[in-house]
Amino acid sequence: MEEMKSQQGGESIQDNSPPSEIMDMETLLAQEGLGLGNIPERGDIRKGVITAITSNEILIDVQSKADGLIAGRELEQINPQSLASFQIGEEILVYVLEPEDINGHVVLSFTRAQEEQDWEKVENSLETGEAITTFVEGYNKGGLLVPIGQLRGFVPGSLVSVFREGDTGAPEDRWSEAIGKEIVLKVIEVDRSRQRLILSERDAIGETREAIKDQLLDNLAVGDRVSGYVSSLADFGAFVNIQGVDGLVHLSELSWDHVDHPSDLVKVGQELEVEVISIDEDKRRIGLSMRRLQDNPWIEKAEEIQEGQLIQGTITNLTDFGAFARIENTDLEGLIHISELSIDRVGHPSEVVSVGETLALRVISLDMERHRIGLSLEKVDSDEFAAIDFEQIQEEMNGEGSGDDILPDTEAVEAGEDAVSEVPEEEEVESPPDEEPAVEEGDEGEAEEAEGEEEAEEEEEIESPPEEEPAEEEEDSPPPDEE
């Protein structure tokens, strides 16, 4: 209690009023709307009132000790339509980038505030399953690009409705007609840290994978040529996505040549044209082929072979039911069935042939469709094909081939023996023993008329009767046993 003296009488006056409360800094700031809980922090989203707009900056009152500022790059990122609509006194949401810059201003962003709101919106849609309506803004190789507020979402091609897809092929052919059109989507993945937003049109409109496959199976037919992209690889083949449904290109249908693994020819994401070779509606499977769209080298090579023709073949493999032989000068293989190995009963092919052995074989069947060649060892000498063999030999004699490449070894030997046996008979007819003396007398006459000594000596060597001596020995001398 204070004591005060009156100026009139100098009397002491005692003040009994209660003392005023001492106001601390927190209370003072709170009265001014600047409490400690209201100091801006990085990442805050606040409501602010526009106090000034210039070509270079926008001042925002965010209830801080200093005005907030949107300038520079953050000002340029604002949508021109939104920027033109701003008015002084208008309340907007802003994102705090820096609580205070070197000039004491709070650095703000309008677009970041909008993005944060959009992220909250899509996260909420992901939890609730609520569909979002937007439009197609663009596309790339994998699918469609759509705006969700300030965000950009992606709709993979496999999740776009089959009713929306255009002709399969290049992206511009598949998606160009969708640009600018409205699309209803369902959020299936949100990742703020990676700025990743994935959406699906099929999920939004209730298209199930089975329903899509049903529709595709109804529209597909064996022999159709369709386009798709490689969705995955396995040791046994490549899966190709056709309008959202996977079909299998088996390893054997990738190429006419041998392929060890699908990755040797194709890779995931690669676009392909394939032919439908089978549709199993019960198992709901689609068989595809790449090689059917290529020229078949087997057919080209097999067309040079005729049924009934003799060929040279090398045994490559033995099985219980026969032996496989590779036709000479080709990479084609044919089967010698065990019943075609010999006229006699054969228990196993190894009893007649062995791997690596080269034999003359007869082509007895050609199946172009199934790529099979039937060969026979037993019918090589068959009279049934005599006319064909005669024509083939005539062609070879005319210079179109070599008889040595086709004739079996046994026939070559027999032909050789016949030739050898015929030669002595011809020699005996042409030069009988009775004519030898006449030849000798003629030669002696020629020797007397010779002009040079060298010619005479040569003639004497020829005239000398070495041939007569063996003849005399054969007539006069007894056989060795008698001696």
Question: Topology, please?
Answer:
Blueprint lengths: L2 E3 L6 E3 L10 H7 L13 E9 L3 E5 L6 E4 L1 H4 L3 H6 L5 E8 L7 E4 H19 L2 E5 L2 E2 L3 E6 L2 E6 L14 H5 L6 E10 L4 E5 H5 L3 H11 L5 E10 L2 E6 L2 E6 L20 E10 L4 E5 L7 H6 L7 E10 L2 E6 L5 E5 L20 E10 L4 E5 L9 H15 L2 H4 L2 H22 L4 H15 L3 H11 L4 H9 L7
Parallel strand pairs: 5-7, 16-18, 21-23
Antiparallel strand pairs: 1-2, 3-4, 3-6, 4-5, 6-7, 8-12, 9-10, 10-11, 12-13, 14-15, 14-17, 15-16, 17-18, 19-20, 19-22, 20-21, 22-23
Helix pairs in contact: 12-13
Q: What descriptors fit this protein?
A:
single chain, 483 residues, alpha+beta, 5-stranded mixed β-barrel, 5-stranded mixed beta barrel, 23 strands, disordered N terminus, disordered C terminus
Describe the structure in your own words.
The chain has 483 residues and is α+β, with helices and mostly antiparallel strands. The protein is 29% helix and 30% strand. It has a five-stranded mixed barrel with strand order 3-4-5-7-6. A five-stranded mixed barrel has the order 14-15-16-18-17. A hairpin with a 2-residue loop joins strand 15 and strand 16 (245-250). It is rod-shaped.
Give a brief description:
By secondary structure, the protein is of the alpha+beta class. It contains 14 helices and 23 strands.
